[in-house]
Structure formats: structure tokens, C-alpha cells
Amino acid sequence: MSGHSHWHRIKHKKGIADKKRGQIFSKLSRTISVAAREKGGDPETNPKLRLAIEKAKEFNIPKENIERAIKRGTGELKGVTLEEVFFEAYGPGKIAIIIEGITDNKNRTLSEIKQILNQNKGKLVSPGAVKWMFERKGCITVDCKSQIEDLKDKGKLELLAIEAGAEDIYWHDEVLDIYTKPEGLEEIKKILENKGIKTESTSLDWVAKKELETEEKDKIACQKLFAALDDNEAVQEIYSNLKE
User: Can you give the pTM of this predicted structure?
Assistant: First the structure.
């Protein structure tokens, strides 16, 4: 499967630069605040907030930062008004792209995204133009290396994932992405953990229905575009149908 979130690509890299770490802290804090504003500050009754907190913990964001972000979302602390944005685009080689973001100024962010795309052989398109090429999926990430000895076998992990109700699986190196229906994400995660499998992360992703093969020059141009988008403070997630 394709369409992996940008976070999936970077979460396994080590030694994130201080500047980059600060940017990630800021982005994840925004995600927490928006989730808390929508359905309250209790992660037990707010699945979106629970996922946001789990992702924040993956990057070792301090507990006090998480608590502040929740309080900003629920209104206990004053702050700017944040809103979610969703953009669809084509990149180099006609690659389809979905961009999710959180901003305090929608018009400014729209202008910035347009500029980044234009500078990197991309183009913003109207709502629905590429979204139909993707499906909303739950994703559970499992690192084979972090499992107990009895569960380091890839074949066994695959079998357990399928038995738990996975719709599809995807290996990249030693890391397994287990795809589920969005509504089954939490249940399948619990089943896997009850079987002794250590999960690295859970998320809701836009997964491409079909991968697109491109020339190497377009692939390089797409990676440059993804990096430029990720540097924008409002951009949270980047998905594409680029075949890796």
C-alpha cells in the first residue's frame, strides 16, 4: 500500500535536529488543542485526542506541554483560535497529494501552500479532485525489532495481524503498518497488545487506492516538495500515491 503519512517516514529516524524537534512539538501541540476543543479534554472519551497524545509521546513531548495544549483547546488557557485545513494537489509526475494542516489564519496558509506547490512543480486543485484516489484507514505501526523474541518472526506477526482483523499490511524494512477500518482501530490495537505485540503508534491516515510509478527525476522532485511542505508550520500530515 502507498500513501504513508510523512510522520511514518520520520518517526523511525534518530537524532532529530533541535530546530526540527521544536517544529514537531509545535505541530503536535496544535493537533492536541484542536482535538480537545472538538470533543473535550478527556482522552478516555475523546479518541482523536487520545491518538494525538500518543503521537506526542512518541516524540517525548513533556507532559506539561501536553497538558497546556489540552487546556488551550478546552479554553482553560487563552490562545489563538486554531482551525483544521485540508488541501488537495498534484505534484511532479502527476502525483496526487493530500495535505492536512492546522492554522490560525486560513487565508495566509492557503497562500503559502499555493506558493510552495508552484515553486516545486505542483498545483493546488479543487476539493474532491484527488481525494477519491484515497481511502481513510486506521494504521497501527509495529516495529519487528522491538518485539519479544517469540514475536520477531515477520510471518508470525503478519498472521496475528490478519487474525486480529487487519484489512491489509505493509512492510517497510523491519516496520509493519497494519491497516484497519477507522472504526476498528482501537479494538484491533487492543487485540494485538493482548497477544503480546508492542505497538509503536496508531493513526488515521489517507491511504492511496493505487500507487503511481514515476521517473526518478519526478520522485526526487516530489521529495523536495514534501520537505518544503513539511517546513510550513501549519502542515501536519502529507499523503501521496507516490510508489516508493
Answer: 0.81
From the list 99, 82, 80, 102, the residue with the least C-alpha distance to 90 is 99
CB contact set of 205 (below 8 Å; sequence gap of 6+): 3, 4, 5, 8, 136, 137, 138, 139, 237, 239
The helix/strand/coil state of 106 is: helix
Asked if 168 contacts 1 with a C-beta cutoff of 8 angstroms, the reply is yes
Total count of residues recorded for the chain: 244
Q: What whole-number distance in Å separates Cα of residue 160 and Cα of residue 174? A: 16
Query: Would you state the cell numbers that stand for residue 50, as one nine-digit string?
Result: 487520545
Q: Is the pLDDT of residue 184 over 60?
A: yes
**Residue 9, C-alpha cell as written in the block:** 517516514
Work out whether strand 134-143 and strand 175-180 pair parallel, antiparallel, or are unpaired. Answer: antiparallel
pLDDT for 214 beyond 80: yes
Q: What residue type is assigned to position 77 of the chain?
A: L
Q: CA 12, CA 100: separation in Å to the nearest integer?
A: 21
Once rounded to an integer, what is the mean pLDDT over residues 81-96? 94
Cβ atoms 33, 79 nearer than 8 A: yes
Q: Residues near 30 by Cβ (< 8 Å), separated by ≥ 6? A: 69, 82, 102, 236
CATH 3.40.50.720 for domain 135-208 = no
pLDDT recorded at residue 19: 53
